[in-house]
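Support request from a user on the community tier.

User writes: "When I paste my structure tokens into the form, the page sometimes reloads and wipes my input. The last time it worked, I copied everything first. Here is what I submitted, just in case something in the input itself triggers the reload:"
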């Protein structure tokens, strides 16, 4: 959920709870007001009746007219309210109601049920009528419950309407303000996504709010650090690869100059012994022939090892010729179990020596992995060189149905290091219905413009 929606929902919930508390307080106040009004009316009428008793005792009033509710009636009151007088001893009870109960019920029945259960509206209020410290009678005033409920509903409705409008206005203002304040968060998320995709040169802009500005500075500092670490790693990887190639070159030279010459000498001596033994010691001719064959086999193995350590065609004839030679050798060694095909498009002379060597080594490593694990019948190598990049794709129809390695083995790690050292990209994909595709893309320097 977006942060601004999360905050808005919290504000609405808090506003709703505040509204409920306010409505509850308004209902309580409305009922308290109704009780005070009823008590004031009862007290006022009680004083009027006591005044009437004093006048009767003074001979200024008529006893037959007591109690006289005419003043209360003329003063007006709530519709449906009633007065009742009960004499203490003897006399006739009297009662009087003002108007009738409200007929228009504009409040919900549920509200009336809840209000009656909470406050018991219209509860009668009684006052004692006393004369000379003796109780003369009891006055009871009962306000209209319907009138009290109508007044409470009116207050609640007005307050709820005002609160709802206020809450809606506050939510709209908060939503606009929070969305505006959180707008830099979208920029930060896009920037982090770009950095996660590998573009460590991307930087976040400066922000006005202090919090966002500090986040932007921290993210930019982290990206700068990661970029420097990546550059150092690429330099280290390039240096290690160069050291590896130098070591391979040294081993190839030593094997060729020392071990190869020794094998050639053994082969020559064995041939001489074989020809001499044919006349003087025929029984040694077979052993000399075996020595000759063993030395010849070792020479063949040595040539293959030298080809892997330091392909002569790569330095003398270029990448295309080296790949064609390697593919021919792979087809010959696999004896038809796996068919290798090569397609080269573009000018390989645009590649630097490091790029050409890296592509050749990656092709060798792919062939080694296919021979060990893929059980493939067909392998296609495609090298395409255009103005901007060199793309090598090695695709097989082996047994792979899912990418089997998260980090990869040493062979894949070596390929990644070679590609990373040259600022390239390496990707793996499954070929339908099964098989693996390895794609390597290396950026090329633009050709110099013709003068």
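"...and here is what came back when it finally went through:"
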């Amino acid at each position: 959920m977006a942060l601004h929606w999360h905050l808005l929902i919290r504000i609405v919930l808090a506003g709703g709870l505040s509204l409920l508390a306010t409505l509850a307080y308004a209902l309580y106040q409305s009922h308290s007001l109704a009780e005070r009004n009823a008590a004031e009316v009862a007290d006022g009428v009680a004083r009027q009746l006591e005044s009437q008793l004093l006048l009767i005792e003074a001979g200024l009033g008529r006893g037959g007219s007591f109690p006289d509710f005419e003043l209360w009636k003329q003063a007006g009151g709530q519709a449906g309210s009633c007065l009742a007088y009960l004499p203490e001893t003897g006399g006739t009870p009297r009662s009087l109601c003002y108007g009738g109960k409200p007929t228009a019920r504009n409040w919900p029945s549920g509200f009336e049920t809840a209000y009656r259960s909470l406050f018991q509206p219209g509860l009668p209020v009684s006052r004692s009528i006393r004369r000379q410290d003796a109780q003369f009678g009891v006055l009871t005033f009962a306000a209209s419950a319907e009138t009290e409920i109508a007044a409470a509903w009116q207050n609640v409705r007005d307050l709820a309407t005002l609160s709802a409008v206020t809450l809606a206005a506050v939510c709209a203002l908060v939503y606009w303000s929070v969305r505006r304040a959180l707008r830099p968060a979208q920029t930060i998320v896009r920037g982090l996504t770009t950095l996660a995709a590998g573009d460590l040169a991307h930087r976040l802009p400066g922000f006005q709010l202090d919090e966002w500005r500090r986040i932007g500075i921290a993210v930019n500092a982290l990206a700068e650090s990661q970029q420097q670490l990546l550059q150092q790693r690429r330099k280290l990887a390039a240096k290690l690869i160069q050291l590896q190639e130098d070591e391979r070159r040294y081993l190839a030279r030593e094997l060729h100059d020392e071990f190869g010459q020794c094998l050639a000498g053994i082969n020559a001596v064995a041939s001489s012994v074989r020809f001499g033994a044919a006349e003087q010691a025929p029984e040694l001719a077979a052993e000399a022939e075996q020595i000759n064959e063993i030395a010849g086999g070792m020479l063949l193995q040595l040539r293959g090892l030298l080809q892997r350590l330091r392909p002569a065609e790569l330095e003398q004839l270029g990448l295309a010729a080296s790949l064609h030679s390697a593919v021919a050798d792979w087809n010959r060694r696999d004896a038809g179990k796996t068919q290798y095909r090569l397609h080269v498009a573009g000018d390989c002379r645009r590649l630097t020596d490091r790029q050409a060597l890296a592509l050749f080594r990656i092709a060798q490593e792919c062939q080694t992995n296919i021979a060990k694990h893929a059980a493939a019948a067909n392998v296609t190598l495609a090298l395409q060189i255009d103005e901007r990049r060199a793309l090598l794709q090695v695709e097989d129809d082996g047994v792979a149905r899912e990418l089997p390695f998260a980090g990869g083995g040493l062979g894949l790690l070596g390929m990644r290091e070679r590609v990373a050292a040259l600022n390239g990209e390496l990707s793996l994909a499954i070929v339908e219905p099964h098989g693996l595709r390895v794609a390597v893309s290396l950026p090329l320097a633009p050709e110099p413009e013709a003068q």
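Agent notes: The reload is a front-end session timeout and is unrelated to the input. The longest helix spans residues 210-280. The CA atoms of residues 179 and 221 lie 27 Å apart. Escalated to web team.
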